[in-house]
């Protein structure tokens, strides 16, 4: 009886190998051969699923969002919890941040990867803006503030703090304290 192969599962396993290499060595470490070795499959199998490195990298970026969404707090979401969840405090979050940073230069050159980054950012702005609005309705954030620009500022803060945590400039405790301090400034 022939073995049943889950092609989607194989593609995702290869994408996971791309992410591990990107987190460890950057995109310059990603090659069909290196990915095959990391995934524990033949180079020919990688080429069966991805005819080019670009195709493989594009697919890997399509799976990044799912990784980030897994770390988000469940419903109901609280603004502070979402902001803290985006910071690279554990091994998985650190890997995700390193992978995103490795792909950033590629997003500037590859229209499809760039589009994914922009769409992901726009979705995050929408989520955080809705949480800012919820906090305003609950009386915890000043009602006169415009939710969308505040969301963009909060995401910029989280991005900067995330990079600072990655390189060791800020501890997780200090980064969390800075988020709390900024949220306190938004109170009525």
UniProtKB/TrEMBL annotation:
Protein name as it appears in the record: TetR family transcriptional regulator
Keyword Repressor found: yes
The species this protein was found in: Prauserella rugosa
Keywords of this entry: DNA-binding, Repressor, Transcription, Transcription regulation
PANTHER family tied to this protein: HTH-TYPE TRANSCRIPTIONAL REGULATOR BETI, HTH-TYPE TRANSCRIPTIONAL REGULATOR RUTR
Keyword Transport: no
An example molecular function term from Gene Ontology annotations: transcription cis-regulatory region binding
InterPro entries named in the record: BetI_C, Homeodomain-like_sf, HTH-type_TetR-like_transc_reg, HTH_TetR, Tet_transcr_reg_TetR-rel_C_sf
DNA-binding feature ranges: 31-50
Gene3D superfamilies named among the record's database cross-references: Tetracycline Repressor, domain 2
Annotated ranges, domain HTH tetR-type: 8-68
């Amino acid at each position: 009886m022939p073995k049943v192969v889950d092609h989607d599962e194989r593609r995702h396993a290869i994408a996971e190998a791309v992410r591990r290499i990107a987190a460890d060595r950057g995109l310059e470490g990603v090659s069909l051969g290196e990915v095959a070795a990391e995934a524990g499959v033949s180079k020919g199998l990688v080429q069966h699923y991805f005819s080019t490195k670009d195709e493989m990298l594009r697919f890997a970026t399509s799976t990044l969002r799912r990784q980030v969404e897994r770390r988000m707090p469940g419903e109901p979401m609280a603004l502070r919890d979402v902001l803290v969840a985006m910071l690279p405090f554990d091994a998985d979050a650190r890997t995700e941040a390193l992978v995103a940073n490795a792909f950033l230069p590629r997003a500037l050159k590859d229209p499809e990867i760039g589009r994914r980054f922009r769409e992901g950012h726009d979705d995050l702005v929408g989520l955080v803006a809705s949480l800012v609005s919820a906090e305003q309705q609950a009386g915890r954030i000043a009602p006169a503030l415009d939710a969308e620009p505040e969301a963009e500022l909060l995401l910029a803060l989280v991005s900067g703090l995330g990079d600072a945590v990655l390189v060791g400039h800020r501890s997780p405790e200090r980064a969390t304290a800075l988020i709390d301090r900024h949220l306190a400034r938004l109170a009525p």
